[in-house]
Design brief:
CATH topology of the largest domain: UDP-n-acetylglucosamine1-carboxyvinyl-transferase, Chain
Number of strands: 23
Largest sheet: 4 strands, mixed
Strand order of the largest sheet: 21-22-1-23
Structural class: alpha+beta
Distance between the termini: 49 Å
Number of domains: 2
CATH class of the largest domain: Alpha Beta
Length: about 450
């Protein structure tokens, strides 16, 4: 266990936000991607790991953090709450040490509205200080994602919740107590929120119907390293014995399986071959079988995997998005892009978010043949895509349109790079290193 954070005397140094919101990406398609891509630490793991540092006054060091906009925004929010930080660049990803000695105050509402994951601050801050007020979260506009499960779980743990002027306030005048709670849906965010909060609640908490995503498991492993007692890690039932004082820890963030899937899709769609450093084939989960059915060639190598396009081209492949261990909804847009020129057709059923097809209209601008009915999209492969002006409306939509642009003839101008920056670090530079003809310009 690391020493108490009173020994932390370095001045707070925060990562700098990347890019400009009015930038655009100019893509001249038709070139296969070839080379090496080091996969960053997982965005969806890094953010809850950072929030967990609110639970202790010990030193928590996180490595392999991605240098993305969401991480910079959350770092600023934690800084405003009194969490001292020191960030540095390591050989593999960002490294940060957090010292939450004097946690106080409430997070900046504007910062919270920029990113949904910041809502996870509510429970840990409540558990640490007895009161917390957080603005209703923002983030990607991919559909209705109510916070009811989060709040119902906090109420079960003894929180008193009120809402006023767009903010949620939680109080625990009698302290938080362990409880039995069944999530109405295996929400990743709610599972993470309640596990963190329960570590400081007195007594035993049993959470049922929990999300089983690898990012939830990664958070639980950090909490255990900090001294928490959690049973059932990796299952849909978690038992937490709370009330112990948590200490410091050193923890490495897992590789980003969504970024890995995105680059595999890009390599296959452009007829290229890319070696991905970081994740192994087992990290792809259900997407592994989907890639194989589409014809993508995958093989393990030391320290990662190699993805390449089949000689005869890709085959349209049906899939359904589902909670883990199913195909992740975050992979649906880049997988759709991979199918745009595949032989035959692909039926895609989106079961989680009703607005997750917002990228379809822009794909049609490039010449894609896509029909959407409700939460089902039918993609018929076409012979040719042509460049056009498109806009990403969320992290995954932006990356999928970048893939489509790489496949298209002529010039594609992708706007909405603030969304792309939220999930991918140095995306333009790394694509260029793979041979893509891409340029980031200021409008």
């Amino acid at each position: 266990m690391a020493s108490r954070a009173e020994a932390f005397s370095a001045r707070t140094v925060l990562p700098k936000p990347v890019g400009r919101p009015d930038d655009c990406l100019v893509i001249r398609g038709g070139k296969p991607l070839r080379g090496l891509w080091r996969v960053d630490g997982a965005k969806n793991a890094a953010l809850p790991l950072m929030v967990a540092t609110l639970l202790t006054d010990g030193l928590v060091t996180l490595t392999n953090l991605p240098g993305i906009l969401d991480v910079a925004v959350l770092a600023e929010l934690l800084d405003g709450l009194g969490v001292e930080q020191h960030w540095s660049y390591a050989d593999q990803g960002l490294r940060a040490t957090f010292a939450g000695v004097r946690v106080t105050g409430q997070p900046d509402p504007e910062g919270v509205r920029r990113m949904r994951a910041s809502f996870l601050i509510l429970g840990p801050l409540l558990a640490r200080t007895g009161v917390a007020s957080v603005a209703l979260p923002g983030g990607d506009a991919i559909g209705t994602r109510p916070v009811d499960i989060h709040l119902d779980g906090l109420i079960a743990l003894g929180a008193e919740i009120s809402q006023d002027h767009g903010a949620i306030t939680a109080r625990a005048p009698k302290g938080l107590m362990g409880a039995n709670y069944t999530l109405s849906f295996p929400s990743v965010g709610a599972t993470e929120h309640l596990v963190m909060t329960a570590t400081l609640a007195s007594g035993r908490t049993e959470l049922r119907n929990c999300a089983r995503e690898p990012e939830v498991t990664d958070l639980c492993r950090l909490l255990v390293a900090m001294g928490a007692e959690i049973d059932g890690i990796g299952s849909d039932r978690l038992v937490i014995i709370g009330g112990k004082r948590l200490g410091g820890a050193v923890h490495r963030t897992i590789p980003d399986r969504i970024e890995a899937g995105t680059i595999i899709a890009a390599a296959a769609a452009t007829g290229g071959e890319v070696e991905l450093r970081g994740p192994g084939i087992e990290d792809l989960g259900a997407a592994h079988d989907l890639f194989l059915r589409a014809g993508v060639r995958l093989r393990d190598v030391e320290g990662g995997l190699v993805a390449s396009a089949p000689p005869g081209g890709l085959t349209g492949t049906d899939f359904v998005t589902q909670p883990f261990p199913g195909v992740a909804t975050d992979l649906q847009p880049p997988l759709m892009a991979m199918m745009l020129k595949a032989a035959g057709s692909a039926r895609i059923d989106e079961t989680l978010f009703e607005n997750r097809f917002r990228h379809v209209d822009d794909m049609r601008r490039l010449g894609a043949d896509i029909v959407v009915r409700g939460r089902t999209a039918l993609v018929r492969g076409v012979q040719r895509l042509s460049g056009a002006a498109v806009r990403g409306t969320d992290v995954r939509a932006a990356s999928s349109l970048a893939i489509a642009g790489l496949m298209a003839e002529g010039e594609t101008i992708l706007e909405g790079l603030d969304h792309l920056d939220r999930g991918h670090a140095a995306f333009t530079e790394r694509l260029a290193a793979l041979g893509a003809d891409v340029t980031r310009i200021q409008r």
